[in-house]
Amino acid sequence: MKKALYASLSAAALMAPSAVFAQDDTIKIGILVALEGAFAEGGKDGVRNVELAIQQAGGMAGGKTIETIVAPTDTTPDTTIRQARKLIEQDGVDFIIGPLSGSEGIAMRDYAKTIPDKTVINGISGALETTWVDPAENFFRFNLDGAQWGSGLGSYVVNEKGWKRVATVAADYSFGYTNFLGFAVDFCRAGGTIVERFWVPLGSSDFGGVIAALPDDVDAIYLGVGGTDAINFLNQYEQAGADTNLIGGTIMADQTVLTSQGRAKEALIGTPTSGALAEDNPDPAWQEYVKAYQDAFPEGERFPTPSLFGVGYYVATIAAIDALNEIDGDLSDGQVKFRAALADDPLATPLGEITLNENRQASGTVFINEVQEDGAGGLHNVMVGKAEGVTQTLGMTADEFRAMGLPSRDTPDCAALGGG
Q1: Angle (nearest 5°) at CA 351 between 348 and 357
Q2: Within this chain, do residues 264 and 390 fall inside the same structural domain, yes or no?
Q3: Are residue 159 and residue 202 in the same domain, yes or no?
Q4: Percent of the chain surpassing pLDDT 70
Q5: Which value, to the nearest 10 degrees, does the dihedral of the CA atoms of residues 315, 321, 326, 329 take?
Q6: Do residue 225 and residue 370 come from a single domain?
Q7: β-bridge partners, 200
Q8: What angle do CA 319, 68, 137 make, to 5 degrees?
């Protein structure tokens, strides 16, 4: 069992090493993270959480000093690959942690194949194809993908809410398709019907046309958008006077949305979502991690609890540090020992135990939450259930999952899964 690396912060862990080390005594990590665009606030939390993990390790891994170089992206694949090349070719990093967004992840899978002697550890990007379609042997993902994060939500809204007819609005890119697929598979298997599907570009500012076209004869609207897109949608949804029940995709009710300015987010009260974490998870490992995060950063410079984006980068960083400690920092011979250490054992995290499959893709727990008022004028997520041991194929055989087709505007076919 890999050792958990989220013990409470100590004063020693917060102190940067003062000595100057030779290059051989340094591990240089490139942090590839979106700091522009719809997910900029989440990206900032990603950086905070990398810092936290390194502080907790005393600034060391495998007996060597950790040095980080942050390479900002805007979630577009072209920018991401340009920044990744800079990290490898100019900055000379040993490996990369990142990226953040779905299409970036697919691009980094392909770029990883061009740098076989280096390793890429995913930040929090969640497109299925990244580790499912022709995966790169040097690309590791310790977070569940978007389809896994959607698992359990569909059956929850059918069985617990009685919502059997929905329309869906989701982001028109790889993660939007993937996260929707996980929800839709679960929803349709439970007997639900998807009346109509709407797709909106990432970075949208005008949702008026979509909101006006939403059908009236549905029990709820599934919203698969996040970041500033989610905030813009909710503002315009409120202005239009709409009040249909909402179901949130994984990034719809993240801290980046719940802590935004304005009252439009109150439309989310009662909204069920599913994803990687539960803010009120009673697990001591989660509680200790949240306290460490809160203690490490001033209240005005962080979220009340770590965001999805922050948690992803944190887990990726502790996975890297744990593997480096296991091999005494030996990155020789094309990093073969490092990759073996990343893959070999379950990883203990604040989210529970994570294992990797043959594609170096995580299996683990999905949490079902509902947005509620926190009693202090704000909103928070309350855990109402969870699904454990969720695999990349959502409990199907690989052949069954593959036959369904890759996530897209039209996949999955709800009728073929028993729904409408």
Answers
A1: 65
A2: yes
A3: yes
A4: 95
A5: 150
A6: yes
A7: 171
A8: 45
CATH of the domain at 333: 3.40.50.2300
Residue 258 belongs to what domain range? 148-280+365-417
Query: What are the tens digits of pLDDT across the range 239-261?
Result: 999 889 999 999 998 888 888 88
Q: pLDDT tens digit string along 114-168?
A: 999 999 999 999 999 999 999 999 999 999 999 999 999 999 999 999 999 999 9
Q: Are residues 108 and 22 in the same domain?
A: yes
The structure tokens listed for 150 are: 């959607």
Residues 104, 182: Cα–Cα separation, whole Å: 20
For residue 297, which of 9, 62, 12 has the smallest C-alpha distance?
A: 9
Same domain? 216 vs 324: no
Boundary of a domain, candidates 317, 347, 363:
363
Q: Which two structure tokens, joined as six digits, stand for 130?
A: 């990244």
Q: What is the DSSP secondary structure assignment for residue 386, as one 8-state letter?
A: E
> Can you tell me whether residue 376 is helix, strand or coil?
coil
Residue 361 is classified by DSSP as B
The answer to whether 374 and 147 are in contact (CB under 8 A) is no
> What is the DSSP code (8-state) at residue 114?
T
